[in-house]
Amino acid sequence: MIDTIEQYLAVRENQMLVVGAKRTKIAIPCANTLIVARDLVQANTYNPNSVSDDKMELLRQSIMDNGFCFPIVTIFDNELGKFVIIDGFHRYWISGPDWLGMKYVPIVVLAHDITKRMAATWQFNKARGVHQVDLDADLIRALIQQGVSEDEIATRLGIDLDTVLRYKQLTGIAELFKNADYSMSWEMRDVPESALVG
Asked: For residues 182 and 177, what is the distance between their CA atoms, to the nearest angstrom?
């Protein structure tokens, strides 16, 4: 049980890795699940997903019946001195005083910067098929404001450039388009008079 950040810093270990078939090293953060005081964990400000009340009730019942099978995915934020949720906000919420009243929650900690953690939130949500378009657009805007290129956003989020541009349009912020390349909608050409119809 981890009650303080000092305890976490004392036990923080390197991630376990498994080598995949193509010699790729795959991190296994779930092998390093920690049980931490719930008040050391907080939500992020960019998670583009929501769950209806009936799904929250189902989540509560699932945890009651099956236990807490999936840890909350976090990063440790040195400035805040807290674990910030990347994935699992609803598991965190259901663990709170209004639902299950848990004083401790299981977490895994990823070593991600802000750009990687925002992309991870998108990836986790999209893999589950849970998304809200307006919040997706806000996430893309935030990544652009972090200096991430459109190509890198497309690669990390598994979408094409047209989709990135559509999400940028949804934000309604012209500033996001200041570096975009546009083709001319009209092209001026000289046409011989013989080609003109009377």
From this structure: 10
Are 86 and 75 in contact, with CB atoms under 8 Å apart?
Answer: yes
104-110 vs 34-37, strand pairing mode: antiparallel
60, 73, 193 from 29: Cα distances, Å: 24, 9, 72
Q: Give me the amino acid identity at 88.
A: G
Residue for token digits 């953060």?
29
- Cα–Cα distance measured from residue 67 to residue 65, given in angstroms and rounded to the nearest whole number: 6
Burial class from Cβ neighbours inside 10 Å (0-12, 13-18, 19+) for residue 9 reads exposed
* Cα 23 versus chain centre, distance: 27
pTM of the model: 0.60
Q: Quote the pLDDT of residue 42.
A: 92
Tens of pLDDT, residue by residue over 97-149, are 999 999 999 999 987 666 666 666 666 556 555 445 555 677 777 778 778 88
Amino acid at 133: V
